[in-house]
Amino acid sequence: MVLIKTDIWSAARAVLGLAAVLWLMAAPTPARALSPGCSCPVGTPINGNQCFVNPYTVPAICVGPNPTALAQSVGHLAASSQQLSFAGIEAILEARRDQLQGTLGSKYKPPMMSYAASALEAFADGSDPLGYAGNSKRSNPLAAMAYKAPPAASTGPSFATWVQGLGDWEHDDAASADDVGHLASTYAAQGGFDATWQNLSKAGDALVVGFVGSYTSAYVGYDGVPTTTKLRGPGVGLYETYVNGGFSADLTAKADFLGLVEDFADIVPSATLNVINAGASGNVQYKKELMGGGFVEPTAGFSFTRTMFGAGADALGLTDASTLRLQAGARWGTTWTSNGTSVEPSLKALVYSNVIADGASSTNNAAIGIVPTDQGKIRGEISPDLNLDFGNGASATLTGSVRFGQGMLGGSTSINLRRQW
């Protein structure tokens, strides 16, 4: 009887032990937190920053960055690609302003002089019966009364077209032990059409209004992992600049319609998504001519981008984000003429910061430890430019830049060709 009870108890314990083993094997157990450069297997439940994997049947795989880090880099790439487009349009407007202000191209001189001063030089027919010369006319009230030139007539519009090629590269170090360093590369082609009106409200002022179209191809490669993120698509926008003597102000509004592809090197299927970048950029400048033919031009401006993700964003851990960049600095340059071509080299130095840089990741988990954005970090930028006016309405601009700051190094280059009629 005792033997029978012992056998039953042993059998029961064996059954319970087997059931416990089977339950442990079947239950989804948190394997580990995601390591840098890893994401969860396809179809595996995710809780916060952990993969729920059965360690006996489903191995953990590393196919790309931590999903939160990847989502953040997507938002950064989208904002950077539109900032590059804004910088390209600003280069076009900069050269046009230089023409209108007289520092580029002899045919445009001397609009930076006030009309009140030049009106005292002579009658409209060029005569000088009182014999006043130069500064004596400006200081003599009789001369001011005698030499009355008619108000300058408004002229325009005159039209122009332009094309531009741009390239940009930036490497960002890992923001934390859970992040992955990445290299972002952006290439773009832009073209535009604009009209210029002069002497609108007073002699010497001018307004330029135009349309721009673009195509952008940008991607991120991550250090040590095969994943890449790509953004490609067209964009359209409007731009304008107003010039009044040494003062100028410009504004650009633009929307980019991009396709996002997260490529996992065929380890798992690629993910695709539509993205819209809507933004605006503006700058104000005041140019002061220096002795010897040079100039200095303090400047301040902003660029704002709102990145909006289409259907399926939640599944990729993405959420809409905004970026606001503020910048200030100055440009120095000089001009000379060589074989009928006006040559204007210049150097711009800027200090800038993304004062708003929303996180593009929909994951909100403080335990992840990833610095979400570069918000508030102070950066620097040095930009050499070379503007050429060939004297027949054709002009060209070569630009470059180097950006630097904590954990970041980048640069860009562009070539611009413009034909003014």
Can you describe this structure in just a few lines?
The chain is an alpha+beta fold.
Q: Please, could you describe this protein's structure?
A:
- The chain is an alpha+beta fold and about 425 residues long.
- The protein has 5 helices and 17 strands.
- The strands form 2 sheets. The protein has a 12-stranded antiparallel β-barrel with strand order 4-5-6-7-8-9-11-12-14-15-16-17.
- The longest helix is centred in the N-terminal third of the chain and has 35 residues, at about 65-100.
- The radius of gyration is 31 Å and the shape is elongated.
- The chain starts with a helix and ends with a strand.
Characteristic key phrases:
421 residues; alpha+beta; twelve-stranded antiparallel beta barrel; 5 helices; 17 strands; elongated
Helix and strand element order: HEEEHHHHEEEEEEEEEEEEEE
Give the spatial strand order of the biggest sheet.
4-5-6-7-8-9-11-12-14-15-16-17
Report the principal-axis shape. Answer: elongated
| Quaternary class | single chain
How would you classify the helix and strand content by structural class? alpha+beta
Count all strands and give the number.
17
What portion of the residues fall into strands of 2 or more residues?
over 45%
Task: Note the gap between the termini.
Answer: 114 Å
Count of DSSP-assigned helices? 5
Helix content: 10-25%
Specify the biggest β-sheet: 12 strands, antiparallel, barrel
- The whole-number mean of residue pLDDT values reads 80
Low-confidence stretches: 21-37, 56-60, 113-147
Q: Please give the radius of gyration in angstroms.
A: 31 Å
